[in-house]
Write a structure and sequence with these properties.
The chain has a four-stranded antiparallel sheet with strand order 1-2-4-3. It is 49% helix and 14% strand. The protein contains nine helices and four strands. It has two domains: 136 residues, Gyrase A, domain 2 (2-Layer Sandwich); 41 residues. Helix 1 crosses helix 3. It binds flavin-adenine dinucleotide (FAD).
Length: 206
């Protein structure tokens, strides 16, 4: 199946970012200040005053191949990740990513090999459990899993780390799979009801 992303929740808005910055003077919101939110956010974004953008959060659930899994894990700052564990449970569902831009013949070869190795993974757990114990059987049988095996990850960004992720991964230099994931995340955020991050998105030119 293709990689997937859904938004579990979000916190904050343009006003949250603006008020965080205005804490240095007064957080009180007046009509005049509300009319200046876009100018303020543009200034903060362009001048690198990015800490106010750490006050929001974007919480996603994704199901991704192992290359994308690693790409996500490389983002160390302001990104909180929890993943499905092949140590603590047997991955009963053989979630398998097949690229959709390959010639059909090669898609089928990858699918066939994935099915063989997934079967070996389950058989290996059953065979090894009486020998090394079920815990060790589960954590080591996963060496049969292929790089296109998908796992589910719970990923939270703040706006600042989300922007950084977008810059690096929603780019022509990034692998297609993570680029598509980043674009899908951005589309979700752009289409939130009430468009709470509209001016922030404009300020960062996303
Ligand atoms: C196109 C592309 C190709 C890549 N190829 C490879 C590759 O071949 N091999 C590979 O290993 N990785 C590769 N990466 C991953 C890359 O090196 C980063 O690990 C990844 O993009 C996360 O970026 P980051 O460190 O800026 O993010 P974060 O870890 O989220 O850090 C955010 C920011 O915090 C600051 N920061 C974080 N840690 C430190 C620190 N220790 N000291 C000072 N400042 C810090 C930096 O300003 C950094 O940009 C690639 C990434 C891209 C986008």
């Amino acid at each position: 199946m293709m990689n997937k992303v859904e938004l579990l929740g979000h916190y904050g808005s343009d006003i949250t970012h603006a008020q965080s910055a205005w804490t240095s003077t007064s957080r009180d919101l007046t009509e005049d200040k509300l009319n200046r939110v876009d100018k303020l956010l543009n200034m903060l974004a362009s001048e690198g005053h990015h800490t106010p953008f750490e006050k929001s959060s974007l919480h996603f659930l994704v199901t991704v191949d192992q290359a994308t899994h690693i790409h996500l894990l490389k983002h160390r700052i302001g990104v909180s990740i929890n993943g499905e564990s092949a140590r603590y449970k047997e991955l009963k569902e053989d979630k398998t990513y097949i690229p959709d831009d390959w010639p059909r013949e090669w898609e089928e070869k990858l699918l066939d090999l994935s099915q063989v190795t997934n079967m070996a993974y389950h058989e290996c757990i059953e065979a090894l459990a009486p020998v090394v114990g079920r815990k060790r059987a589960k954590e080591s049988a996963r060496f049969f899993k292929m790089f296109n095996s998908q796992i589910t990850m719970d990923v939270t960004f703040n706006w600042r780390s989300f922007y950084h992720f977008q810059q690096l991964r929603n780019s022509e230099h990034a692998q297609i799979e993570v680029r598509e994931l980043a674009q899908e995340m951005l589309d979700i955020v752009k289409n939130l009801e009430g468009n709470p991050f509209e001016k922030t998105i404009e300020a960062f030119k996303l």
